Every structure is written in C-alpha cells, then in structure tokens.
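User: Let's play a game. I give you a shape written as tokens, and you guess the letters that built it. Ready? Here's round one.
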C-alpha cells in the first residue's frame, strides 16, 4: 500500500503563467520597490474582504506589530498560546505584555470564556488567531471587545477568505494577513493590514515607509517630489512591487484556490477514520478555508505516526508544538496565563496533513489511506 515512488508534500505554492508573466513585466519596467502593483493588490484585497482600507507590507508579523504600535498598545494583550510564535513576538516587540488564554478543543481557536476570564484593568487588546483557516467566534469576540473597550486584532495569517455570518476575517477587527508560501495566497514573503479606520490606515501606511506620509509613486506626480517629511519615526516594512505583482495575480484565483482546499477537506472528512482521529469541524454559519487540514491523534504515538507517513512519502507535520508559553523565551519571562490544558493537549496530539489546491483526488485518497493504516497499526 505505501508506494515508494509516491510523494505528497505538505504544501506547494500554486503559481502559474499569470504570476510568472506579471513578475517578469515588473522586472522589465524597472520599478522594483513599492509601486503601482501594491495599489492593485491592495485594491483587490479590499474588494475581496469588503473593507475600506488595506495596507500591504512585508509580513504578517509587521502587520501585527503595527496594529499594536499605531494604536499605542503597551498594556496586556490576550491571545492564544496555541499559535505560531510570531503572534506573541509582535506583542513583546511592540512593548506590550502577552497574556495567554486557552483554546477550544474542537476548533483550536481562542476560547471566548477563557479569554474573558483573563481581562483585567491592564488589558488593552484582544488578539484572536484564526487557526488553520477556521474563523474564531468573532461575533462573540466583537461583543467582548466592545464591552471591555479592547482593541480587537485578528491574526488572519492562516485564514484568508474564512468568514462568519458572511463577514470575512479581517473585517471584524484590525486584520493582519500573511502571504508566506504555505498560506491561502502567497507572495513568498508578505503581509497586509486591513481596517475600517481611515486614520489608522494612514498612520500604518506611513509607519511602513519610514514614517513618511507620501509614497515615492505619489510624490512623482508632485511639483517637488524630493520633499519627504517624516511624521513618525517609522520602519521599512514595504512590500516590493515585484511581490505585489505576484499578490495581485494570486487574488484573481483566491476563491478558486480556497474552493479546491474545501473540496479536498471534504474528501479527507469522508475517508479518515473517526475512531482514530478527531477531524476539523465547520460550525454552522462559519466558513473554513483549510489553510491546513489538522487532525488530532487518538490513542497512538504521534512521533511514530509521522515517521511512518514520512516513509510513505507523505509530508505531514505539526502546528504547533511546543505551544508559545513553553518556548524558552516565554517560559523564562513567565507572562500571565490562564489554565492551558487544551492547548497542551492539542500541541501533543495535532497532525497537519498535506493540503494545497492542486492536490489530486488520488493524492488525498493516498494520504488518508496511509494515515488510517499507520494509526491502526500503531494503536494496536
Ligand atoms: C498565526 C500566524 N501568525 C503570524 C504568522 C507570521 O506571518 P509572517 O511570516 O508573514 O510574518 C504566521 C505565519 O506562519 C502564523 O501562522
């Protein structure tokens, strides 16, 4: 059954002639830094999300950092520990204090009750992370943020296009997106911040480019284009025109790519043995976009399971172990935290299976068969 000639990697970026041509055109144009393609990419992103402002930049980590810095957040920020460390790093580097709350076993997303229990007078923001393409309960978090006057940040790195009640992630609070190659849309490296607040968007835009409120492209049209005055001590977090071209073309097929992911997830749901794995759930009113397809191992050794899959050419992995609060920097800093039992249980049992739009039905069936067989044998 395991086929030595077969290889199904964890993910492969979905790039074709449109992206190659777009990048070549930008290279030929000579305009390589932030430029016209950033505007096109941002425009398409805004339209897709139905939000008024989108600011492109070099990473989601920069977007999370700027969401905090631009809002002057220096107090406590409540977030999950079951996430990629970048979420917490952004809080610490912005000069604020992470407070780790537990997640729900079923969705792996921040538990609203656990988060609310950690709100103190020092709390200034809630950073919700949409895990693996599954939107957290944003209707609840929006209420919580309003009730306790907290800034609501959505770490949407893993959930471009996921939605609750028809509202996409990044449309509820300040949205922070990643375009790393494993994400629903890629520019290699890249990020976007979305907001409904025009003043915040303008400030973030300036902070991305050295604190100067006009871009080189906008200044080109002015009588004195050399005038560059910094309003803030900013950063250089710009996304290049080359990468923005990639993003603009990826936007053209984002819906199709997400639908392909959803189709593969449905097939995994049908084929994987629920006696061996707890599978992802899509609650009514929520739309999952399966940036990852994550199962939870039931009663067998995960390390040996992953080794067996590797031998069969299946590129499975783990997201995320160890959880952030146990990583050396965070364990030593001993930031405030709630009981994180579910987080620790998930970190010990989760397995990410291959997921990318161009997988074939046969690839999905092969991975599912390898998983069922390996788990069954190990569980004996
Ligand atoms: C939840 C989460 N937040 C933040 C990031 C960081 O994104 P970037 O690499 O674009 O900075 C990632 C990327 O893996 C992520 O999964």
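Assistant: Ready! My guess for every position:
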């Amino acid at each position: 059954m395991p086929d030595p000639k077969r290889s199904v990697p964890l993910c492969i970026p979905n790039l074709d002639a449109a992206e190659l041509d777009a990048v070549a055109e930008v290279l030929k144009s000579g305009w390589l830094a932030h430029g016209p393609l950033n505007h096109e990419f941002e425009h398409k992103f805004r339209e897709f999300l139905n939000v008024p402002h989108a600011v492109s930049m070099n990473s989601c980590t920069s977007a999370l950092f700027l969401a905090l810095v631009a809002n002057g957040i220096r107090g406590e920020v409540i977030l999950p520990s079951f996430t990629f460390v970048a979420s917490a790093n952004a809080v610490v580097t912005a000069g604020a204090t992470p407070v780790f709350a537990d997640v729900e076993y079923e969705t792996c997303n921040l538990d609203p009750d656990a988060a609310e229990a950690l709100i103190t007078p020092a709390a200034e923001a809630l950073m919700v992370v949409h895990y693996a393409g599954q939107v957290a309960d944003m209707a609840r978090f929006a209420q919580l943020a309003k009730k306790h006057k907290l800034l609501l940040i959505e770490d949407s790195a893993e959930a471009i296009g996921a939605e609750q009640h028809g509202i996409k992630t990044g449309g509820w609070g300040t949205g922070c997106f990643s375009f790393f190659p494993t994400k629903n849309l890629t520019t290699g490296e890249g990020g976007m911040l979305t907001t409904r607040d025009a003043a915040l968007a303008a400030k973030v835009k300036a902070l991305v480019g050295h604190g100067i409120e006009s871009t080189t492209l906008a200044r080109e049209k002015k009588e004195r284009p050399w005038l560059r005055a910094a309003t803030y001590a900013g950063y250089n977090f710009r996304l290049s025109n080359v990468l923005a071209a990639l993003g603009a073309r990826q936007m053209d097929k984002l819906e199709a790519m997400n639908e392909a992911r959803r189709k593969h997830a449905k097939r995994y749901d049908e084929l994987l043995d629920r006696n061996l794995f707890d599978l992802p759930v899509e609650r009514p009113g929520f739309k999952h976009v399966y940036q990852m397809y994550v199962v939870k191992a039931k009663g067998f050794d995960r390390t040996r399971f992953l080794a067996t899959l590797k031998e069969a050419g299946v590129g499975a992995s783990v997201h995320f172990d160890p959880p952030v609060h146990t990583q050396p920097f965070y364990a030593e800093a001993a930031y405030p935290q709630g009981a994180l039992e579910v987080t620790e249980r998930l970190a010990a049992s989760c397995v990410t299976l291959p997921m990318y739009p161009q997988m074939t039905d046969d690839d999905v069936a092969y991975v599912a068969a390898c998983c069922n067989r390996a788990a069954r044998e190990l569980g004996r």
